[in-house]
Amino acid sequence: EVVSQDLSDRMLELCRTHLARRHLDSSGVRAGGVDDIPERDFFDAAIALDVIEHIDDDVGALRRLRDALKPTGTLIVSVPAISRLYGPKDVEVGHYRRYDKATLLDALNRAGFESEMCRYWNLIGVPAVWLSVRRGERLDEGFRYSRSPGKRALNAALRGWLRRVEGPIAPPIGLTLLATATPR
Fold first, then answer.
1. pLDDT (0 to 100) of residue 40
2. For the whole model, what pTM was predicted?
3. In sequence order, what DSSP letters do the residues of the chain get, joined into one string?
4. Residue 74 pairs with which residues in a beta bridge?
């Protein structure tokens, strides 16, 4: 059983459309935030990708995710990394914070999790974001979603870099932190 929950009607509709195209059940797609998860000790895994940075009380949100997990469950979380890169784009998209490894691990610990893995991802994007923050500008990432041949080639090269270079090694820094954790 898979449950997909989001506050965005647009994201929910995209999820339902994606599932329908594959003839998969979409009855588990529901509206709501972390506070609205009714299940307790229920899920084998909870995946929160780019979620907790949007919540003022991130530790409280992580606790609610922990409560929804079975005692043997696993949390997978991704967050924007490098607190010093907090800038105009973060404000625009509603981020309360960016994380450093220590701050994410501390939040997980205070929420009652034992961290299993925590690593940076997307080293290659750090210089562009650093430069945009230094200039006080919002980095336009529209190129990532373009369908032009040049943009598709760039995205393919980035995917190759991430898969072949950053996948096997854990870079010392990156734009994203990925972590897995289990309830204590």
1. 96
2. 0.86
3. ---EEES-HHHHHHHHHHHHHTT---TTEEE--GGG---SS-EEEEEEES-GGG-S-HHHHHHHHHHHEEEEEEEEEEEEB-GGG--HHHHHTT-S--B-HHHHHHHHHHTTEEEEEEEEE-GGGHHHHHHHHHTT-----GGGG--SHHHHHHHHHHHHHIIIIITTS--S--SEEEEEEEE-
4. 45
